[in-house]
Queue: 3 jobs
Job 1
Amino acid sequence: MAPSRLAAVAGGALALAAGSALAQGSGGFGIELVEKAGDAEMSGALRILLALTLLSLIPSALVAVTAFTRIVIVLSMLRHALGMQETPPNMVLIGLALFLTLFTMTPVIRQVSEQAVTPYLEGSMPLREAATQGAAPLRDFMVRQTREQDLALMVELSKAEAPQSVEDISLVQLVPAFMLSELRTAFQIGFVIFLPFLLVDLVISSVLMSMGMLMVPPIVLSLPIKVLMFVLVDGWSLVVKSLVGSFA
């Protein structure tokens, strides 16, 4: 699948998922389009308006229901562990996080494309059914990455009955539970990344104190050493491999 088509399918998948989430709101809110023979033009206009509305939700859906949260937090913590506040720039980190997210979510996006986006675009499936079918692969992905404790917490806070199966889990409960699990996992990975850099800082500080060079900031020596160590061990490849492998 070409990158441009894959990106388009990703947008359609997230839009359908957002529509499904709106339909499952706690207040029973839903969107229903009624088509009549004489209102074909109005129905088309409403469909375009609805599509544009859902597309505006894609940035929030990208953060909420994909691997983006874990990846961008780990990359940001890696930058802080190195001791460089502005290098790599935010644009570079976000771009890398976006493409790693697209790479990680490719199997899910293909399932959504086959089950929902393509049938809807061909006109063989109504919007409501497409939203339901498109949300199923995303639901399975989020359930696999969500801890039971986080899901139980959201069910308890919503004061709802405990779900008996995966299909019974509401997206209103699953999405925040998934994000809590992603935050926990990202901080766990970030802690492991911080340890070797913290060790370098401690060693450099001890050496400077033992030599009586108290006026020399430790970061002056530790920063180039940490960068050199990170390059020698091929740190970027290790971090990317660990991040992608954490979703297996």
Note: The first helix runs from residue 3 to 23.
Job 2
Amino acid sequence: MSQFHESLPSVALVIGGGGAAGNAWAIGIIAGLAEAGLDLTESAGLVIGTSSGATAAAQVRSGRPAAELLASVLSPPSRPAGQNREQPPSLPMATVFERMRAIGAAATSAAELRRAMGAFGLESDSVLGTAAGQQRRAMVAARLPRPEWPDRPMIVVAVNAHTGELAAFDRDSGVDLVDAVTASTALPGMAPTHRVNGNHYINGGVRSAENADLASGYANVVVLSPFGERSQTPAERGADPTGQFEGLRRPPEWGVDLASEVEALRAQGSRVEVITPDADSQSAMGTNQMDPATRIPAARAGFAQGKREAPRVTFR
């Protein structure tokens, strides 16, 4: 449309959160699209990453070919025996998700939900201990293909734990990439809040699993949403939630769900394509998307799905 100047980058890639399975699925989708002739590692003028999508965004912007990114996921990690015992401490998953459900049920607005989740994160810090934050930062650093921000535009989304406000980190924010990604992946209870320049931050998925609204101004927006249908409310899905993050689901009237973000982008003139896990990908990702064992099957399913999805992802 005429509102988009020809000199502007035309494509924004949005990678939503979704745990270990969601990260691997997104890389699989990107590799599958590239195999079919649509290489978003090259064509995306902006990449936006939230939670596990922040790690995927850093991978996409690393300069490595899509096929190589997929190969790294499909290769079993070489870890010393017993390394799992060195993982940063966290509260029991059942406890975390029960607390998240209670917070979600009590919240009357998106802002209230974010502040309450921030308070939960800060409260959990005293239980997890100060060493946990250092361990997590080191773990995130080891997962990044390169420590520096890429030259090409990328946004990593987190939430201020004190105020609930959006934090959109980029190369000009004065924050190291590893700190931005550590903040974006800091799920309250599962990880300590991450301190950056005197402020504490939590997972960007507390605001939105995708934060697709940050792609405003781009003619074409491709959204990879690992939660997909799973991010709907139980009433919308017609069944009890089987996933883990139902406490972060937001009523449509709050206007901060993916459907609302997509509607707003389209109203501004953007062409938006949303890719969510199909039946095969959902089966591969399983019900525990935090389980690292889901990575290889999720990546394979994403790769196959990406090749199938390519014909409908067209740009103007």
Note: The radius of gyration is 18 Å.
Job 3
Amino acid sequence: MHLTRRITIQLVIFTVVSLTAATIMMFAFIGVPNLLFGIGHYRITIELPEAGGLYKTGNVTYRGTEVGRVESVQLTDSGVDAVLSLQSGIDIPSNVQAQVHSVSAVGEQYVALLPIGEAAPPMKEGDVIPRSRTSVPPDINSLLDATNRGLNAIPRDNLKTVIDESYTAFAGLGPEIARFVKGSTTLAIDAKTNLGALTNVVDNVGPILDTQTDTSASVQAWAAHLADITRQFQRNDGAVQGVLRSGPGAASEVRQLLERWKPTLPVLLANLASINPVLVTYRDNLEQLLVLLPQGTAMEQAIGVANRNSKQDYKGAYLSFNLNLNLPPPCTTGFLPAQQWRAPAAVDYPDRPDGDLYCRVPQDAMFNVRGARNLPCETRPGKRAPTVKMCESDENYVPLNDGYNWKGDPNATLSGQAIPQLPPGAAPPQSAAALPPIAAAEYDPATGTYVGPDGQIYTQGNLAHRGTEEHTWQDMLLPPHSN
């Protein structure tokens, strides 16, 4: 038979692949070196009270990971000895507990090695796990016998009733129960994934629960208040329904109103934002005003209806029209002297002088009692000052004099204060040019003639002794009249 070169190459490749697969099968899966020579494994023995369904070649696990196989199961005088072949590369502590478990209800037993206690030296060839640290699953026959005895202890009619009622309760709920089981499984898996966080919550939930216990009175009060609110909602059910029915329409109207206000509302809010600091500063004054306003209104009403339903000829408030002259007299202390007054006929608008002009007499004087000197300081309760800067500073108000200056300089003072008053720390004003003297002229009492500042001669008849008109003190209070 003649083989071509191609067929020869194919046979060689097939032979190499077959030998490689056989080698992998023998060494990786079958474990021929371990079976024939025990290479890479060591053997230990576990003492069992009974086999418990354990069989040769069964799996051996440590912490859920496969680490070997059951090499043999032998009957002894006191029980059963199972020889385990364990991998040499995995260190298993010598104080482990060996438990025989079943993978499923039909069998497939395996040996689970579980560590107990503190760390111990690893096991080695020939070690024995005593019966005190081994366990086997209960016999299925014993379990069935116990279940059968339990069912026989229940009356048949009652058991039938339970089964029938269970069928009625859960009939057709298979998908829902499946979803419940699936959700519970997912929840358990998520709980296992987040076991550290759950453990942390359990460990630290104590202080939170203690807080709830300490605030139990507050919680009870909150629950009572909530109950009161609920009862009020119940009693006013019609009104609540009305609000719910009318609420959308009202909200729409408010939205339309805001749309119409859109051009002006931002400006209004900006202005309110500017006014807000002032309102906050004068909050106490506003509160006092709101307190006194009703009382003042009541007093005005009482004055206005004082003569109502009376026999007097006039109706209205009790008013006195007595003429009081200079009582109290005007305050001229703290203002510019008469030489610097502007003529009423002047129409220009020069810059105001630096500083403040106000009545600068003692704060308890009878003159101008509502003047600037008695303004209360908002940020300094109990202090009164004419300016905000004086209120905020440690400077106190100092009057020029006592104000009783019926003649002479009303600003006469020995304290050296400037007129107008400069703010604290301000530099004194530069000396101004000398003011022109007041124009004055002597007149002839016999004729009432005098020479004015412009050099012209003027005559005023009421200055002459022989004046034809009679003058009384009342004429001094009335403007001159023309003939």
Note: The chain has a mean pLDDT of 81.
